[in-house]
Amino acid sequence: MKIGILGTGDVGQALGIGFATLGHDVKMGSRDPDQEKIKAWVNKAGVKASAGTFAEAAAFGELAVLCTIWTGAENAIRLAGPDHLAGKVVIDTTNPLDFSGGIPPKLAIGHTDSAGEQVQRWLPHSQVVKAFNIVGSGHMFKPSFPGGPPDMFICGNDDPAKATVTGLLKTFGWPVIDIGDIECARYLEPLAMVWIRHFFRVNSVNHAFKLLHK
């Protein structure tokens, strides 16, 4: 599959390498594809990886992954061009973090809206699926914990799109739990805050969530 990565931070780089490792063709999109860090990522990710503008990555991908910081998400989508993403599955990994009060951050949106819902409104002709937002980038690909693999919670309005994302997540090593439509991002984004607050308390990224069944 051709994958367009929108964003060049730790999340975009980790997921891009994961997709390339699994044999997908990956194009990382940014405002400036000639950045040294992007060249280094392409070299690290190998022959399956390339770089371009946001619009080029969006047009290239059969599926796209939004990996920007929240304050840059709307502009990245505008630069990518919603028409380039129309009819495509878009994985939304973002969390609406507000750092204006310092660290740790707070949520900029909550209760009656979510980043996932906003992304779906910005991309009305795409199938947005929230995923990968509840774990650190270092454990997104092939997570390994003493208690077994953690669970990835997802949500979105389109069942076939969620089935596609579920299949990809399983190849990444994740059991998947679908919690409902995109409105459920209102719950997954606060769950990410649990991960983030624990990170700041223990200064470690080595934690994740698992739903226990009996």
Can you describe what's shown?
This protein is an alpha/beta fold and 214 residues long. Helix 3 crosses helix 4. The mean pLDDT is 97. The protein contains eight helices and ten strands. Helix 7 (159-171) links the parallel strand 9 (152-156) and strand 10. The strands form two sheets. The chain has an eight-stranded mixed sheet with strand order 3-2-1-4-5-8-9-10, with helices on both faces. It is globular. It has a single domain (2-202), classed as Rossmann fold, CATH 3.40.50.
Fourth-tier CATH superfamily name: NAD(P)-binding Rossmann-like Domain
Q: Describe the biggest sheet?
A: 8 strands, mixed
Rg from C-alpha positions? 16 Å
CATH class: Alpha Beta
User: What is the straight-line distance between the termini?
Assistant: 37 Å
Mean pLDDT comes to 97
Oligomer: single chain
* Assigned CATH architecture: 3-Layer(aba) Sandwich
- Helix percent band: 25-40%
Helix/strand-derived class? alpha/beta
Figure out the total of helices. Answer: 8
Measured by DSSP, the beta-strand proportion falls in 15-25%
- Low-confidence parts, pLDDT < 50 over ≥5 residues? none
Secondary structure: number of strands: 10
Across the major sheet, the strand order is 3-2-1-4-5-8-9-10
CATH topology: Rossmann fold
Shape: globular
Which tags fit this structure?
Rossmann fold; eight-stranded mixed β-sheet; alpha/beta; 214 residues; two-stranded antiparallel sheet; 8 helices
Write the layout of secondary structure elements.
Blueprint: E1 2-6, H1 10-21, E2 25-30, H2 36-45, E3 49-53, H3 54-60, E4 63-66, H4 70-80, H5 82-85, E5 89-92, E6 97-98, E7 106-107, H6 115-122, E8 127-130, E9 152-156, H7 159-171, E10 176-178, H8 185-202
Parallel strand pairs: 1-2, 1-4, 2-3, 4-5, 5-8, 9-10
Antiparallel strand pairs: 6-7, 8-9
